[in-house]
Amino acid sequence: GQSLEQPSEVTAVEGAIVQINCTYQTSGFYGLSWYQQHDGGAPTFLSYNALDGLEETGRFSSFLSRSDSYGYLLLQELQMKDSASYFCAVPAGGTPLVFGKGTRLSVIA
Amino acid sequence: DADVTQTPRNRITKTGKRIMLECSQTKGHDRMYWYRQDPGLGLRLIYYSFDVKDINKGEISDGYSVSRQAQAKFSLSLESAIPNQTALYFCATSDFTGSSYNEQFFGPGTRLTVL
Question: Rounded to an integer, what distance in angstroms lies between the CA atom of residue B92 and that of residue B104?
Fold first, then answer.
């Protein structure tokens, strides 16, 4: 089976940098993805890492270490609108995504 | 117009009632999914379908059934609703590109309350 662990809550100051970690256990690994969900909204895709290393998309970056079964989402120059829940997820072979329980990020002034 | 739509957006029902949640998409994707979200538990997969003739159970399929009426339509039914099925339900779609991962596109969700 698959399981993912991520912190339940993180608080950071506007303009700062925050890192949200995710560790996973899966019987077959194909990559780690991240989704953002604002309160009352639908999850939206942020990033996907299939290979080790850092992928950058604007203010957001995502890192993967397959040997450590670990990844993180890095948010830079935090803005109030970044306050949301962030989910890591893994696709397991032919089955669809298995999600972590989510990290609620609160950005404070 | 939204690419993935869900109806109804909100529903309050009573224990024992049959409920159907509908999902339609205009993205032309073959793969469709139903997830349930409860506070603190993330998104859990109920059922998924890779094409019209393919239906698969997910992690928490007990008490639910689905119907894939067409490529664009995937319905979730609760045959006899119970209070612990009170949750936020999301439909999602993805394309099949032959790679091991496909981005999923979510509908706006249906908030279901079972009294």
Answer: 6
- Interface check B24 vs A, CB under 8 A: no
Residue B47: which region, alpha, beta or left (left: phi > 0; alpha: psi -120 to 50)? beta
Q: Determine if the peptide bond prior to A96 is cis (ω within 30°).
A: no
Please give, rounded to a whole number of angstroms, the shortest distance from the CA of A1 to a CA of chain B: 10
In this predicted model, what pLDDT tens digit does every residue of B32-85 receive, in sequence order?
Answer: 999 999 988 889 999 999 999 999 999 899 999 999 999 999 999 999 999 999
Query: DSSP assignment, residue A26?
Result: -
Cα nearest neighbour of A41 on chain B: B108
d(CA A100, CA B109): 19
A96 contacts chain B (CB < 8 A) = yes
Q: What does the alpha-carbon distance between residue A13 and residue A94 come to, in Å, rounded to a whole number?
A: 40
Q: With an 8 Å Cβ cutoff, are B100 and A50 in contact? A: yes
